[in-house]
Amino acid sequence: IGDGMSLPQRMLAREYLKCFKQEDLRINRFPVNGMTTTHCHNKLITDSAAAGTAIACGVKTDSGVLGLDASGKRVESVAEAAHRYGRRVGIVTSVSIDHATPGAFYAHNSGRGNYYDIGLELLASGFDFFAGDEFLSPEGKSGSLYELAVRKGYKVVRGRAALAALNPGDTKTLALSPMCYAIDRDKKDVSLEEYTAKAITMLDNPNGFFVMVEGGRIDWACHANDAATMLHEIFAFDQAV
Question: Which residues of 205-217 are buried (b: 16+ CB within 10 A; e: fewer)?
């Protein structure tokens, strides 16, 4: 999922690559393309919570709502269905792991800003692999989310070296490190591509797996009207693909 990415962003990235590198985006090389609608139930202009819920759960809901339909009823996500059927499940993002798009795959909350409660739902999901930026609200009524993660059987790792040292036989994993825009990244920073590659290594098994990978900062750069940063975020997303 390229968050906030639609045809205009893809067109600009494609034209840039054609002009300067004589190539196309990898996502434009797929044999099949489709369109999906992600508008809110109560608004024309969507947000990542309602859009994420539309993609993850197949229903339209109100702006700001995660994993609930417009009446407030809990709805199952494709990730939860995969987990229920014995697949290994991973959630990967370039923004905080409790943000709206990743949250739509494991959380059921009426407010996308309830970050601590969403973090608790993440731990309760039992999914096998999470990777992204740090929790936005790691401390709350039940204690530190990082300490609770360890109690729930998660191995918490930070940084490129710790990520690279993970083995497929390891326990459930929470790989969280501060992330930056691709245009600013240096050698010490973990990339979305690295997280994605590690997710595939960790999740691959004879019963199959499901992984959601989000290029979350495409949206942030668009909100800032920063075309150069947005282009680099799309290229980083495309590299992860």
Answer: eeeebbbbbbbbb
Active site positions, annotated: 48
Longest dimension (CA), the chain: 54
pLDDT of 147 reads 97
Tokens of 18: 């054609």
pLDDT at 194: 96
Distances (CA, A) of 21 to 6, 29, 229: 22, 16, 18
Q: Are 69 and 42 in contact (CB under 8 A)?
A: no
**Would you say residue 110 has pLDDT above 90?**
yes
CA atoms of 163 and 198, how far apart (whole Å) = 8
CA 170/CA 74 separation, integer angstroms: 32
pLDDT in tens, 18-66: 999 999 999 999 999 888 889 999 998 999 999 999 999 999 999 999 9
| Contact (Cβ atoms closer than 8 angstroms) between residue 129 and residue 175 | yes
Q: Which residues contact residue 190 at a Cβ distance below 8 angstroms, ignoring those fewer than 6 apart? A: 159, 160, 163, 177, 179
Residue pair 211/90 in contact (Cβ under 8 Å)? The answer is yes
Say how far apart CA 112 and CA 98 lie, in whole Å: 9
